[in-house]
Amino acid sequence: MAADAVSLYGRTKLFAWWGIGQAKKREKKLLRFLKMERRKGTLETLEGTIGYMVEDGKRVTITDYSGTDTEVWVPEEIEGVPVRGIAKKTFLSRKQLRKAVLPSTIEEVGDWTFAYCTNLESIWLPKREMKLGSRIFMECPKVGWIYAYRPGIGKEEIGGKPEERKDREGQCATLLAASAGMLDTEYLMNPLEAGTESWIRKWDARMNAVMEEEDSEGYTKMILCGEEDYGSSLEEFVKNKRKGKVKLALLRLMNPIGLAEDMEEKLKAYVAGHTKGCDTEESWEVIRTEYGHKKEYMQKFAEIGGVTEGNFDAILRDMPDEYAEMKAFLIQYKAQKMECRDFFAGLAL
C-alpha cells in the first residue's frame, strides 16, 4: 500500500513537471506568434527611409520617416500587405517636405501627422471614408491644396504644379486646405464629402461666421493666455484680424465653386470696403505685400472695386518697384476699363 502511494506520488509529480514543460512551450509559441503579429521594419525609397509596423499580417502602419527629399510617396503596400494607417507624428517637423501623397489604401491618419511641416504645400488623400486625427496640419502655413483623388487614378495624374489647376478639383483642393488653415475647422476635413453641395454649404456657413465675427473678439483671451498671434496691442490685433478676413474673402472669390450670389456680393463689398483710400486699407495691404506678384489676384482685386479712379494714382505710387509687371497691368486696366467708360459716358452726354 505504501509502495503504491509512493508510485502514485511519483507519477503525479512527473505529470506536473510535464504540464509545466508544456505550458512553457505554449508560452514560447505564443510569444513567437505575438512577435509575428506586430513586426517592425524599414523600407528604403527614393525619397527616404520609411519605418513601419506589420500588424496581424493584414495591415501596415507607417510609423516614422526620415529623408531630405521635398516629396514623399507612401506606398500602397509593403511586403505584400496593404498600408492602412499613418501613425501620429510620422512626418512631424519635416521642414524640407513640400508634397505628400498618401495611397488609396489608407484608412487612418494619426494626430499631428504633418504638424510643423512649415514648407508643406500640397497633400493628396484618397476620396474615401477614413479616420483623421487631430491637428494633422498644425503650424503648416503654406498648405494651399489638399487633393481628394479618386482611387484608381494613375500616378502620372498626381503631379504638376497645383497652382495651375483651376478646374473644380483644383478649387476643391484649395477649399479643403483652407478648412485646416484659415477656417481651422476639423469637421470640414472630409475627403469623401469635399466638393459636394452639402459640404460647400457647410464651408460657406463657417466662412460667414468668421467674416461676421467682431474684429476685437478673441483679444482678451489672447492677452489672458499670453498668446501674441495677432500682436500685442488691440489696434494691431484688429488690423491683422481684418487682413485674415480679406485673405479668406479673396480665396473664396478666386475659387467660386457653388458660391451663392448674395455671398459673393458680400465678400466683394468687404474687400472693396478696405481698399486704398478707405478708412482702413487692409485689402490693399494684403494685395501689395502678399499677392502683388500674382496677376490673377490683382485682376480680381481691380474687378471687384479695389482699384478706382479715385485711388488709382495712390495705388500706383504705393506699388513696390519689383512689381513692374503689375504696374503695367494696372495702367493697361485703367486705359481699357476706366478711360473707355469715361469716353462712352461723354458720348451719352
Which SSEs are present, and which pair or pack?
Blueprint: H1 2-37, E1 38-44, E2 49-55, E3 59-66, E4 71-73, E5 77-78, E6 81-86, E7 99-101, E8 108-109, E9 122-126, E10 131-132, E11 145-149, H2 168-180, H3 197-212, H4 219-225, H5 234-254, H6 261-272, H7 282-291, H8 295-303, H9 312-318, H10 324-348
Parallel strand pairs: 3-6, 4-7, 6-8, 7-9, 8-10, 9-11
Antiparallel strand pairs: 1-2, 2-3, 5-6
Helix pairs in contact: 2-5, 5-6, 5-7, 8-10
Provide structural commentary.
With 349 residues, the protein is an alpha/beta fold. Helix content is 45%, strand content 14%. A hairpin with a 2-residue loop joins strand 5 and strand 6. The chain is elongated, with a radius of gyration of 30 Å. The protein starts with a helix and ends with a helix. Helix 2 packs antiparallel against helix 5, helix 5 packs across helix 7 and helix 8 packs parallel to helix 10.
